[in-house]
Amino acid sequence: MKRVLIVKVTSLGDIVQALPVVADIKRAFPGVAVDWAADEAFAEVVHWSESVDRVLCAPLRRFKKARRWGDFKAIAASIAELRAYRYDFIIDIHGVYKSAIIAFLARSSKRIGYQSQDLGERGAAFAYTGRFGPRPSCDAWHGMRISASEALGYKVEGPPAYNLRLPTPAVVPFAANGAPVAALFHATSKDDKKWPLSHWGAVGRELVQRGFQVVLPWGSERERAEAEQIASQVPGSTVLPKLSVTEIAQMIDGCALVVGTDTGLVHLAHALQKRTVMIFVATSPSHCGIDAPFRSISIGNGQAVPTVAEALEAIDYVQGESRAVAMQHGSAAA
User: Fold this and answer.
1) For the residues 174-203, what does the mean pLDDT come to?
2) Which pLDDT score is estimated for 326?
3) How far apart are CA 235 and CA 286, in angstroms?
């Protein structure tokens, strides 16, 4: 096998969590080239992967909103790039119309997608020449790894490998004071996923007491106003300036701790192997949570608001290993 195309178009968190599929394929088939098709809005995230050979993208989301001629021409040009190679397999781990159309336009006689009951949009089935097995009983992220392995005939082995390398930051977005940095990602895409601002304030104050420098990122004016409300409750905290996705990723990479709701940027923190706590209020942690021993944990059950005490207990957990190592080193020095 020489070349495989992965189709996962959106969104940030889903794309981040799908990246280990590439490492799995390359482990199973040394020398294979793996390309990736994504929406232009999220293509930079795929570019950070050291495992992906070629990133194919088009402004699909932007064209849907604005219908600009320039975006249409960019989509037309991307089709030619998409068809530049013939693929041994196309693996659509998205399962909606736009991903199916991409799979159908690419050159391959083997286009694999989800079974009808597992598709995001059932009409996407027109594009496939083969199907994954039934959706496995596990979280969505491991499920993608299993589906791809079934399609290509290998076994999933080991923990997920994201293999991310970020561009070197030009400017640090906050004044470093030597203290470890904790980022609080309070913003969410939907109001029902929000954690109370008073809870964020309580966690922020506790982190400051523990010696952290607390920073608050935001994306919209409403989120900036909420960040300022939290900062008013947390002495010494910093509301960050408006940052691009790349700049936020670089900021995350400099953090000692990330606490946030179920959002793509918190999934990115997990993929960058930061100590991460993800808070679930209205979505399912068993389906789309994060977990790595002593490093990442999900709290909440998707049906009730987790308490401040639960968040602090989770923070203790993800910091536990590092504190134990530090204590061991201290004892040895004594």
Assistant:
1) 92
2) 41
3) 35
The residue behind tokens 């904790």 is: 182
Task: Tell me if 260 sits within 8 A of 241, measured CB to CB.
Answer: no
Say if CB 200 and CB 184 are below 8 A apart.
yes
Q: How would residue 115 be classed by pLDDT, with cut points 50, 70 and 90? A: very high
How far is Cα 53 from Cα 46, in angstroms, rounded to an integer? 10
The CA-atom distances, in angstroms, between 41 and each of 132, 267, 284, 286 are 27, 17, 25, 27
Contacts of 312 (CB under 8 A, 6+ apart): 203, 206
User: pLDDT higher for 333 or 82?
Assistant: 82
Contacts for 217-224: CB closer than 8 Å, 24+ residues apart: 217/183, 217/185, 217/187, 217/243, 217/248, 217/251, 217/265, 218/187, 218/242, 219/187, 220/187, 223/186, 223/187
- pLDDT at 83 > cutoff 60: yes
pTM (predicted TM-score) = 0.91
Could you tell me which of 209, 203, 161, 212 has the C-alpha nearest to residue 185?
203
3-7, strands of its sheet edge to edge: 54-58, 33-39, 3-7, 89-92, 111-113, 130-131
Domains of the chain: 3-152 (3.40.50.2000), 181-333 (3.40.50.2000)
Q: Any residues with CB less than 8 A from the CB of 239 and at least 6 apart, and which?
A: 215, 216, 218, 224, 227, 228, 231
Write the burial class of residue 268 (CB in 10 Å: 0-12 exposed, 13-18 middle, 19+ buried).
buried
Task: Let me know how many helices (H) and strands (E) the chain has, helices first.
Answer: 13, 12
User: In this structure, how many other beta carbons lie within 10 angstroms of the beta carbon of residue 156?
Assistant: 17
22: its two tokens: 């590439």
Q: What is the secondary structure of 74-99 as a DSSP string? A: HHHHHHHHHTTSB-SEEEE-S-SHHH
Least confident interval from 67-71, 93-97, 179-183, 317-321: 67-71
- Answer for the pair 255, 182: CB distance below 8 angstroms, yes or no: yes
For residue 1, give both structure tokens: 């096998």
